[in-house]
Amino acid sequence: MISKTMEEALNKQINEEMFSAYLYLSMAAYFEEIGLKGFSNWMRVQYQEETFHAMKMYDYLLSRGGSVKLHAIAEPQKEWNSPLEVFKATLEHEKHITKCINDLVDIAEKERDRATFNFLQWYIDEQVEEEANDEEIIRKLELIKDNPNALFMLDRELASRVFNE
Ligand code: OFO
Hints:
Its main location: cytoplasm. This protein is mainly α. The protein has helices at 4-33, 37-63, 83-110, 114-144, 148-158.
């Protein structure tokens, strides 16, 4: 049976993941509203990924005999000034999530909870990928600057992203 401390920390993280989903869904709407459907698709897939992150933790907590407590999801930002600003905000958010996951690993170690420690390794790897994806898009957007043709080419590229766990 999972400890109360670990249970509380995982419930907090489920909320962080659900907020991430909400934030990216808000960004998807922003992109669609400014006519960038490919960017919007990329963010919709990110929304699906974050929901998956939350549900994976939800299922794990239940499988360990823990109790799921869903906290209120905060309202995400709605407006940004440019695609570059969105992706910079995305990277900052992912760095925050990486810190949350590292803190969870510390708690699992302190609680001597080996199962949760192992479970969290998947999230550690996932965060490396998430930050790398954002950095790659930021680099492209910095090269693109104000070139609309290049921006539309990137939009076409991002339109092909599909969700896979
Ligand atoms: Fe974006 O990795 Fe979960 O929150």
